[in-house]
Amino acid sequence: MSQHYLDPVINPRTVAVIGASKSPLKRGNRAIRTLASANYKGTILPIHPSDDEILGYKAYPSVAAVPFDIDLALVCTAAATVPDILEECGRKGVKGAVLLAGGFSEASEEGRVLEERAVAVAKRYGVRLIGPNTSGMFSARMGCNASGWFNVPTGPLALLSNSANVLLSLVAEFQFQANTGISTMLSVGNQADIQFHEYLDYLGTDDATRAALFYVEGFKNGPAFIETARKVAPAKPIVMYVAGRSDAGKGAAKSHSGSLAGDYAVSRGVLQQAGVVMVGQSDHMYPVADALSLFPVMKGRRVAVVSEGGGPITMAAEALAANGLVLAQLSAETQAKIHAVVPAASAISNPVDAGGGTDPRVEYYGPISKAILEDPNIDALLLVGYFGGYTTRYDDSVAEAEQAVCRELGELMHKHGKPVIVQTHFANFKPSSLAVLREAGVPFHRHIEVAVQCLAAAADYGRARERLLASAGADQALAPRAHAEALIQAARKQGRDLLETESREILGEYGIQVPPSVLMRTDGDAAAAIGKLGAAPLAVKIVSKDILHKSEAGGVKLNVTGEQALRAAFAEIKANAARYDAGAEVTGALATPMAARGVELIIGVTQDPQYGKVIMFGLGGIFVEVIRDVAFRSLPLKEADAREMIAELRYASVLDGVRGAAAADKEALVDLLMKVSQVATAHPDLAEIDLNPVILHDKGYSVVDARMIVAPAS
Amino acid sequence: MSQHYLDPVINPRTVAVIGASKSPLKRGNRAIRTLASANYKGTILPIHPSDDEILGYKAYPSVAAVPFDIDLALVCTAAATVPDILEECGRKGVKGAVLLAGGFSEASEEGRVLEERAVAVAKRYGVRLIGPNTSGMFSARMGCNASGWFNVPTGPLALLSNSANVLLSLVAEFQFQANTGISTMLSVGNQADIQFHEYLDYLGTDDATRAALFYVEGFKNGPAFIETARKVAPAKPIVMYVAGRSDAGKGAAKSHSGSLAGDYAVSRGVLQQAGVVMVGQSDHMYPVADALSLFPVMKGRRVAVVSEGGGPITMAAEALAANGLVLAQLSAETQAKIHAVVPAASAISNPVDAGGGTDPRVEYYGPISKAILEDPNIDALLLVGYFGGYTTRYDDSVAEAEQAVCRELGELMHKHGKPVIVQTHFANFKPSSLAVLREAGVPFHRHIEVAVQCLAAAADYGRARERLLASAGADQALAPRAHAEALIQAARKQGRDLLETESREILGEYGIQVPPSVLMRTDGDAAAAIGKLGAAPLAVKIVSKDILHKSEAGGVKLNVTGEQALRAAFAEIKANAARYDAGAEVTGALATPMAARGVELIIGVTQDPQYGKVIMFGLGGIFVEVIRDVAFRSLPLKEADAREMIAELRYASVLDGVRGAAAADKEALVDLLMKVSQVATAHPDLAEIDLNPVILHDKGYSVVDARMIVAPAS
What we know:
The structure is a homodimer.
Chain A: H1 7-10, E1 14-18, H2 27-37, E2 43-47, E3 53-54, E4 57-58, E5 72-75, H3 82-92, E6 96-99, H4 109-125, E7 128-130, E8 137-139, E9 144-146, E10 154-161, H5 164-177, E11 182-187, H6 196-205, E12 211-216, H7 222-232, E13 238-242, H8 247-257, H9 264-273, E14 276-278, H10 285-294, E15 303-307, H11 310-322, H12 332-341, E16 352-353, H13 365-374, E17 380-385, H14 390-393, H15 399-416, E18 420-424, H16 432-439, E19 444-445, H17 448-471, H18 482-493, H19 500-509, E20 518-520, H20 525-533, E21 538-544, E22 556-560, H21 563-580, E23 586-593, E24 599-608, E25 612-619, H22 622-625, E26 630-634, H23 639-648, H24 666-682, E27 686-696, E28 701-703, E29 706-710
Parallel strand pairs in A: 1-2, 1-5, 5-6, 6-7, 10-11, 10-12, 12-13, 13-14, 15-16, 15-17, 17-18, 18-19
Antiparallel strand pairs in A: 3-4, 8-9, 8-11, 20-23, 21-22, 21-23, 24-25, 24-27, 25-26, 27-28, 27-29
Helix pairs in contact in A: 3-4, 6-7, 10-17, 11-17, 12-13, 13-15, 15-16, 18-19, 20-21, 23-24
C-alpha cells in the first residue's frame, strides 16, 4: 500500500516544537518531555529565539534555521502568533502543524477571522493543520506523543474526539485496564483544516489500527465522512458516541465546540447505514471498541449463556433481550454433549447453568464451550458469573485448570469465528486467569450489561459489514428522466414549487404507482372526470402554486360521489380558495379515487444540514406525530437499506397486521422507497419530497398526497 | 424500640453448627471459620456425634446436649436430614435455623414434599427458617458471618437476594470499592418460611441499616411485601432489581428459583407505588443503593453540572435528559457569583464549564459549588471530569486544595439537603482526595451514566417518599353499596358474569358518569328509547349473559339514528346473535348515544398472581394494542397514585391535545380512576373490571363499554 498523504503529519520523522521552553510549567516544555517519554523515534527540534539547547535537545532560533526537512510543527504559542508561524513553516516546506492554542473560531468572531487567516496561509503552502484548539495527538508508530499526557498505552485502537477531556477519560481507562492500547489519538479541535473524514481515511490505511473509536459533537463535512466510513468500516470497526440525543445534549455540544449536533435520529440512521457502530453511553465506548478489535465477525444475533448460577443468567437474559439478542435453543446433540459433562446441571438448553445442586467445577467450561461453539444455532458465547475468577472465589489450586480453559476459549473463538466474552464478578481484582484469557484474545468485563453491549455491537457490526460488502458498487442507475427534469427546471425558473399534478407526473416517470386522476380546469371537466374515474368516492383537491396548505384553505373535499356532487365540490373548493387568498392563481382541482384502507405511512426526502439529502420513512398518523417512529438514510438507498429502515421502526409490527388487519405489502414498500431515492438522486434541484400520507395495502400502495419543493434558482 | 421477633434469628447470641467438621473442604468447617473470621461476638457451638472439639471450639454430640439456650442452628447437612434436625431443634427451643442444603422444592417433587415436612415441623415448634437452598446469611451487629464467604465488609446497606451468585457479585463490589459495607445479608433461598417481607420488616427496625438492596425473581406474598415496603420506604430507601422484563428473563428466573416473575409492568407499577426504587441493570444496584444511603432526600429533578471540559458536560446532559432530570437555569445571582470566580469560563448558566480558555483550577470548585447549592432553582449537583483526581491529572501540589473542596462539598450537601455526586475519570486509581470525599459523605463514580443513575434514583425516591408521607393513613372509604353488592352476589349465584346493564348500574352507584341508556327487551321499546335518547346517533349492543364478544357475534350496531333504524338494528342484532349462538339467552339490546370525540382510554382491574388486585390504565386503540402504553397500581389507589399513573404513560402528551385536539379533562380522569378503585376495593368478589374504551373529552368522559367478571362462588 502506498503511503497516505497524511502519513508524514501523523507519523512525522521530525517534530519542531515551536514555543519550546525550559520552564517545566509551559506546554512547550511538557511537549518535549512527553515526546521523549514515549521514546519518539524521530528527531525533536526545539525552536527557541535564544536557547541553544532545551532538555538536552539542540534548539534552533527558527524553523528556517533547521538544516533539514521538518515533517511536523507542534505549535505551543498563543493564537495571535499562528498565521506568521505558519507562513514560516510554509516557506520551510513543513508538512503539517498541530495548533494547540485556543482562542480561534470556538471563542469569538475575532478568533474566527484569525482562524480563517491561518487556514489561508496553510493552504497556500500545503501545510496540513491539526486543530486549532486541540490538546494534540499521539501516534504509536514513531512514538510521537504530542498529546501532552504521559504513559499513553500502545495498541490497536484509534481514538478521535471533539473533546480532549473525553480523550483523557479514555486514556485513563486504557491505563487502568492495562489490556490494550492506542495506535493513533487525535484531538481534532476546530477541524479548521483536517476533518474527521480525512483522519478516518488515513486510519483505513494504517496497519496498526484494528478499530476506531470516535466522540463526535458534529461533522463539518457529513457526506464525506459517510463516504469514507462506507469504505473503511468493512475492514475496521468504527465505534462512535454522537452527541445530540436530547436538547440538553445539543445545547451543551453547541456551547462546547460550536457544533450543530443536528437531529440524532438522522445521525444514527445515516451513520449506521455507513457501517458505524453507535454507542449511547460513555461507559460503553472503551469496552465496545476493544471487543470489536478482538472479535471475529459475528454472523447473527443468537447468543448462548453459560454460568454456574441462575441469578447472573437471569440478568444476562434480560440484558440480551433488551438489546435484541436471542437466547437460541441449543441443538439436541449439543445438549447431549453438555449433559454428559454436567449430568446434574439445572439447565442445559441455553442458558446453561453448570452449577445447580453441586458446586461448579472450572473444568466443565472447556467442553461445554466447545459443544456450544460447534452448534450451528449459536453465533456467540457469553460466560457470566465466577469464571475467570475461580482462583479468587476458591483458591489457587484451580488456577492451572482455569487457565487451560482460558486458552481453549481463545482457540475456539478463532476456530469457529464466533465471539466469546466473559463477565466475571472478580474482574477488578485482576486474578491471574484473566491475563491468560486476554492473551488468548477474549475480552472480559465486570458487568453483565457491558459484556452484552459488546455482543450487541458485534452483531450490529456484522450485519452492517455484510450489507456493505454485498451492495458495494451496486448503486442504482441515476439518469434523470428528461420530462421530470424539465418540469423541475420550469418550476425553478418561475420561482415556485411543483404543483401536485406535476409531482405526480414525476413520480410516474420513475414507475411509482400513482392513482388515476383528472385535473379539472373548468366545471365542464367534471363529466370527463366521472367518465374516467367512475362512480367510486373521490377526493378533490385544489391545485394552485400559491396554496401550500390545501386543507387549511378549504381546498380538499373527500368522499365525493357522482358528477353532480363533483361539480358542487369543485365550485366550493374554488370559492374557499378565493376566500382564503384572493390573489391565488388557481390551476384547477384534482379528482382522484379515495384510497382503500391500509397502513398510513409517510415518506420524505429532506436536506439535512450535516449530511445532505436524506430519505425519511415512518408510520403515519399518531406514529409520526406523537411517537416519531421514523427512520432516516442518506441517498442513494440500497435495497438492503430500505429493508433495514422498515425493520428498524419501533412499531414495525404494525405492518404485519394489527387489530385484525392483513399484513401490508412490504415488497411494494421497498420498491417505493427505492424509487423515491431514485427520483431524489436523479434530480439535484429537487430539494424536498413529501409523500404524506402513503397508504400501504395488503397489495400495493396509494400515494395520497405528493409535494415537491425545488432548490431556489441561484 | 422493642426487639423485632426476627432479631434473635438474624443476630443470634449462640450459633449451633450442625454438621460441623474438621475437614477444611466441608461446609460445616468453612461455616465455623467464616464465623470466627468475622469476630463473631456470640458463642459458636459445633455439633458433632463424636468430636469434643472442632477448630478450637468445644463441640457437643447434639443440640439437646448443649447446656444453654441456642438462638440459631446453622444446618450444613443434606436435605434428607433436615426434618429430624428441626425436630431436635424444636425440642431444644432453638429460635431459628439456616438450611443450606439444596434438593428441596427447587429441585423436584420429592424435594417439595420434604420441604413441606420440614416447614411443618418448624411451625410446630416455632423455629423460624432461613432457606432452604440458601448460601446463608451475614449480620454485622454480632459479627455473625454465616455466609460461607470471608471478608464481608461492614456498613449501612442490607442485601437480600433470590440468588447467592448475585450476592457474591455484590460482595465483590463492596470489597473492590472499599467505601461502604453490609449491615445484613440474606440469601433467601426457597423462602419456605421467612419471606422477603418479613426480612424487610426486620430491617425497618434495624438501626444499622440505612438502605436495602434487593435482587428479586419473585415474591411469595406480594401484597405483604407491598404493605411492608410502604411502611419502611419513607425511612429507608429500598432499591430493587426485579427479574421479568423479557420473556427470556422470565424463563431464566423460573428455571432458576421456580419464581413466576409475572408482568414486569405490574411489578414496576406496584413496587414504585410502594416507594421502591427500581433499577434495571445489575451495574446500577450497588451505586444506587450506596448513593441513597448517603444522600439527603432530593426534592426535585433539577440538577446542576460542573466540569472543566465540554465533552463530559455534553455526555452528562444527554444522560440527565435520558433519565428525566432537568438542567435547570441558574439564577442571575448565582451566575454572577460564578462569573466572579471564573471570569473566563466558557459557560456559567448550567452546565458550568469552569475550564475553557484557561487551565482549570481546583480552587474554583468550592465557591462554584457553594453558589450552586445555595440556588433555589437546583436540587442536586453533579461534578464531571477531573475533579477528585486532580492529583493524578496534575500532581500532588494540588492535593491540599482539592481535599479542602472535598470536605466543603460534604458540608454543603448536608447543609442544603441537596445530593452531591462526583464523576471522575480517575476513580479507579483511587487518588487520595477521593477518600476524603467519601469521608465527607459524597459518593463518586468512574462513569457519568452511573452517577446520573444515582441522581435519578434519588429523585424517584424523594418523590415517592413525599407521596407516601402525604397520603399515609388517608385511605378512601371502602363501604360497599348494598345494591351493587346484591347484583354481584346474584350473578355469582347464577354462575355468570355481570351483564353490561348491571355493570353500568354498579358504576353509577359509585358516582361514575354513565351515559344514559335504554335496555330494549321488545321491539316496542324502540319508541321509548328514542323518546329518552333523542334523534342523536345511537350505539346498540346485545345484552346476553352468554355472549362475551359482542362485536364478533354481530351484536353491535353503531350510528343508528331514529326509531325505524333502531328497530331494524335491534332485529338484526337478535338475528345475528341467534346465528352466532342459538342457545344464548338474550336479555335484549342496550341503546346509548354514540360518544363524542376525545382520547380513547382503557381502564381495568385484574387479579395479578403476585400482587392481587391491580388497576391498569392506558391510552386505548393502537396505544394499548401495539405500544402497550399502560400503567399499573395496586389497590386501593390514592389520588397521588392516580396522577402518577397518568404522568407515567410514555405518550401522556396525547392527553394534552395532539393533531389539533383540545386538552383532555385530566381531573375527570383522576376522579374516574379513584372511583374505579373504590368499586374494586369495596367488592372483593368483583374479580375483573374492564372499561374499554373510555373516551376522555375536553370536559368529562364517556364510558363506552363496561364489563365486570365475578369471582367464582366457592
